[in-house]
Amino acid sequence: MTKAILVIGHGPIGHSFIEKITGSDAASNYQVSVLCEEPRPAYNRVMLTQYFEDRDAEKHDQMKLSYVTEQELKDLNVNLIYGRAMSIDREAKKVSYTSASGTGATSYDVLVLATGSFCFVPPVPGMTIPEKKNVNWPDDPASRPEGVFVYRTIEDLESLLAKAKSGAKRAVVIGGGLLGLEAAKAVYDLKMESHVLEMAPYLMPTQLNEAAGQVLSKKINDLGVHVHCGVQIKRVVLDDGTVTGIELLEKGEETPTVLNTDLIIVSCGVRPRDELARQCGLEMGARGGVKVNPSLQSSDENIYAIGEVAAIGGNMCYGLWAPGVEQADALVQNLQQPGSSEYLESDLSTKLKLLGVEVASFGRSADFWFKRQFDGKDPKVKFIDSKDEINDTYRRLCFSEDGSKLMGGVLVGDAKDYSKLLQLSKKEDLAGNDPAGLAFKRPPPGAATGVAVDGGDGTGLADDDTICTCIGLSKSQVRQAIIEKEAYTIPQIKKACKAGTGCGGCVTPVGEVPKLLAHTLKKLGKATATGICAHFSYSRRELFDIIKVKELKSFEEVLSSVGQGSCDGCELCKPIVASILSGLWNDHALKAGRDQIQDTNDRFLANIQKTGTYSVIPRCPGGDITPDTLIAFATTAKKYGLWTKITGAQRLGMYGAKIHDLPDIYKELVDAGMETGQAYGKALRTVKSCVGTSWCRYGQQDSVTMAVTMENRYKGLRAPHKIKMAASGCLRECAEAQGKDVGVIATQAGYNLYVCGNGGAKPVHAKLLATDCSVEQVLKYTDRFLMFYISTAKHLQRTAPWLAELEGGIEYLKKVVIEDSLGIGADLETMMEKNRSNEKCEWKEVAYDEELRKKFNQFANTDATHDSEQIEYIDMRGQRHPNVYSPP
């Protein structure tokens, strides 16, 4: 029985849980819904400061910060609900919410609280408007006077932008921790005079010791950001309800002073969003948050909590990314198998770049921070400080009492060794290093002649060391994604394994992932590769444009015009040029010497099998076939002793044909009204269909006619890779259109058009391109889509990976195909029309052309044949079948 999982909160941790549960083996057992308070799906809060790079809300929201689109959630079968949860009815298992359209309620079997936290606003006079305080919405902007902001969401940043555009020149940030310095970076980017106020004696007191905090303060002051530590905030100065200044008592002063400012950003810590849990009577943590056990289960067996709202054991709420991801993973395991995973604590190590200054803090266990072992007050922990006053860098490394183990450390100004030191702190020894050598960055004895632990990739990490601490990925896991998923760029790596989607530190230009990528590509022979081969210094896309503009019609013309070298090409460039020539001009593959540049299958218009014989698969548009055609097919197969089968694409196939018999087989099939199915080519294979309104009582449209129309329109179309299509007559989707390169699903108003899906070894769900299309619109959009793909894709790249690499993804494709944003719609349609006008059945031309027939002869100087077949055949299920060799 399917269980309903409701996730409240679609932030990074809520989405991490959704990704893991929908990607698990038990995904089909759950129907997942998520209640999202913000007007957009999950995005990366850690990287909010990037929002100010060009101050383009739409670009950053959807292209850079976003983790997932609404369509991608639909593809995962996740129900996205925009609204704010107001109450939980535990007895009825319902959650009430408000949204832009009113109020609503949704039921659950399992409830996951991923509500995160809200910014703590200190109770300073003038900081809030008490009568407008909203217990159900702690971050309500209406509860703050004009000019007081928090730094948490895209809406917060939009408000800051609006204030800056209105003429604000000076900003004060309250809080000198991680969040405060991120906020300081935001106003710094807005070219405002910036002040940071910290009540502690130095910056980042939770992660750093005093000496490190002072070095950080100096570096930030040197950037032009004014740092005030050890201050007491007395009140916010208001003029008619608008901020004009802040009164504070500076360290060492006796009289408060007023610091004039146009706005205040409060970023001095967070508190768990636990108001829903309190309302429904769940047991709370000692300092707030929902008390959960090691299975992340609350006092109600049907309610769980993860992320900043989860009080682990009732004591600790983690405010960092990595612990939340680990909690999400543990919860998914426990939902599938109760008690299978215990979550007790997380590593709080972190590396950040604050206002351009590298800062890192790492430790062997949580005690390093909770017991402040880095302060030097624990007699069992010894430390060595290294300070470079010329470059303003500082490091403190903490060791066990006997100096045999690295317990942790803090780094300011230079954190290049963070990953190496973090991994070393997890080990039981110093791996041949000595404490002073680590502190002062001296290589261990014999290092110059030894083998690098990182294999020479420059990361300083062994294969099982963690390279992305936010997601918990080892170096070997990221390398595996690069190789197996062909993730050859940083954006592709992010999609392939999620590395770099947290704080982003590991994928910065000085991070470990770019080093690993460069080294791996070099070993794969891809680092310095340019062009498709030694004969052409152009990519397939560049070569396509050149051949199109110059109207080159043969391989010799292409080689002579833009190639290099005096040879006849190679096995890399010849098939690529053959594909481009066919995609542009669609001339017969075997004429004018083009047979010499084809792959084996294209050269004989059939698929070679393991016996050296060929399979012959005629076209069967839409699967619609007459009894007479079936009889003709069977007669030919029986005549030539061929094995017959309904193929995986539900077409008729005959197997075991000899090369010299192929022209005669083609002639018999053509004479019976059949055509080549081009199962041998990188071309349209088939358009699968259900029976639609022809017979089915559920049918909405005539899917068979639609499939026949599409197959007849696009037959013969050559592309970088094979193309499969389908037409389903209703939403029951019997033709599996959402797993095809092009698929249409009938609705009452027309057809929904899907693109860029595929089955096979790496199945990909198709993306919705357009809805309720007429037949004419389907064909128009498909014409444009296919020719855009053929014009821009890499050789042997299917539509799904092509779309994954296309900057802007499906939304950009919609603009090109439907809105004609590039102004090339008519050109793409003309290209398709020219391609279609040249389409001819390749089998028919061979069958009735004596010169083409000769290309299938066994001997160059005679039509005679010699049967030298040495294959043993056996009878299997009434058919002739090659015997399978089994070693003794």
From TrEMBL:
Location of the NADH-rubredoxin oxidoreductase C-terminal domain: 349-426
PROSITE patterns according to UniProt: NIR_SIR
Keywords annotated in UniProt: 2Fe-2S, 4Fe-4S, FAD, Flavoprotein, Heme, Iron, Iron-sulfur, Metal-binding, Nitrate assimilation, Oxidoreductase
Metabolic or biological pathway, per its Swiss-Prot or TrEMBL entry: Nitrogen metabolism; nitrate reduction (assimilation)
Residue span(s) of domain FAD/NAD(P)-binding: 4-315
Domain Nitrite/Sulfite reductase ferredoxin-like stretches: 609-670
Essential cofactor(s): FAD; [2Fe-2S] cluster; [4Fe-4S] cluster; siroheme
Similarity section: Belongs to the nitrite and sulfite reductase 4Fe-4S domain family.
The protein, known as: Pyridine nucleotide-disulfide oxidoreductase domain-containing protein 1
Organism this protein belongs to: Durusdinium trenchii
